[in-house]
Amino acid sequence: MSEKGKLVSNGEQEHSYGSSETGEETKKLEDVYEKIGVGPAQYLYWTCLSVITYFDFSEMVVIATIVPILRCEWQLDIVWETMINVSSFFFSAIAGAILGKLPDIYGRRFILLIFLVSLFITTCASAVAQTKLQFLITRCLVGVCMGVTFPTAITFSTEIVRSKNREIGPSCITAVCNLSVFGCAVLAWLLLKKIGWRWFIVLNAIPLIPCALFLFFLPESPRYLVTSGQGAATALTWMAARNGVTLAPADTSVTIHQEAQLGAWSDVLSEKFRKETILLSAIFFGNLLILFGLIVFVPLALYSGFCGGDQEAPVHKCEEVDQGSLLRLALITSGAVFSTFAAYIAAVTLGRKVSLRIFSTGGFISTIFLYRCFSKIFTVVVFFVIKFLQTSHNVISLIIVPEYYPTAFRNAAIGFINSWGKLGGVIGAGLVYVLFYISPYLVVGMFSSAALLVMACSWIWDKETKDTKMSDVIEEQQIS
Q1: pTM of the predicted model, to two decimals?
Q2: Is 7 helix (H, G, I), strand (E, B) or coil?
Q3: Are 33 and 236 in contact (CB under 8 A)?
Q4: Strands (E), 232-344
Q5: How far apart are CA 270 and CA 101, in angstroms?
Q6: For residue 451, which of 422, 423, 428 has the smallest C-alpha distance?
Q7: DSSP 107-157
Q8: Sign of CA dihedral 91, 388, 48, 212
Q9: Which of 26, 138, 338, 400 has the fewest CB neighbours in a 10 Å radius?
Q10: Distance CA 76, CA 85 (A)
């Protein structure tokens, strides 16, 4: 391979500073991004991508709040209730692992558009389902679409800005996702009984349409275009114009050697990446097991005899939607809103590695307090703290993943790791229903075990990706 086609550390290539066809220097993409800076172009991308991903988290609240209604309407037993509760997340995990390579092959923007439209259609289809089987099938299809849109949006958000600002994209996305959990819980408290569960599902899906229309007019990721051997001149010129910057011809002639276009699935678990992929997968698994499980556990725990509840023992039966539980759920989920800002500040000031260890240790300690709770108010506070700390940790993890993996298979890596997170969410939400009616403290034990796993992996993680260029994160890495 020639010097110009030489691979650099993360699988992208060093771009020559020699003469181009225009007689001017060909720049590195990172240099061009530095010249473009951060401005309206990035804000447009981040706004669109953030709103796109809100559905992934609001889905937790939607399902958790309508399942008690479906229990009465369709006479669901605990098996059907569990299947409906975890179906979308289970298929999201499968889709993330299997289909995560599609955006690396066909582009971030194109795949996002296809699956955004599909997500809206399948969601509305579930809202008009007449039987529990129809509802289950359509929610599985919703999960498939979710498994592609979320990791693709995360990848996209990090590829449109210079390396030193790339944590802003995932932070914006997680901020909107966490806000959507709180907002959806508030809407459930205000509107669920008034408009019914079918219109509540449709209401949650409506923002997907303007997002798809907005995304249609945004250019593809320049980093993807360069890495896949396509020209990025149009995209870079568009971004520069929005930011009030004029690029020279050489700035838009960034190219990459054909031999380094795309990585393979095996690269995610190659020897160079295996340890870190396993650690990040375990972290995502434990985090989402806790976060998804809490959404299901909180209404059950606060309404039962657990920690000063209203009933003497948890009983699986048809019952009216408890407005008080929905309100307390909204208050607890507000912890996720504050966590995004805390995580961003910690990531920028303390670094990714230290932040992981701080939030994971605090999260594990907080779960222990659930074994000795004194009142319903005390329990709400503990739930709030757990939600705050684990969500903060999850934000840091989402920042690290796209920073660590090369463009050639970045989306495949995010899809693979995120699928383990969704699997944890499936197990967490599903086991809550099974264990809670045996003993609520078995659920607490599950949360403590998951928090211990997250803490252990966070202390083992020894990579600091703060202030590293995407082409410098993985040293001496070559794509075979």
Answers
A1: 0.73
A2: strand
A3: no
A4: none
A5: 16
A6: 428
A7: -HHHHHHHHHHHHHHHHHHHHT--SHHHHHHHHHHHHHHHHHHHHHHHHHH
A8: positive
A9: 338
A10: 11
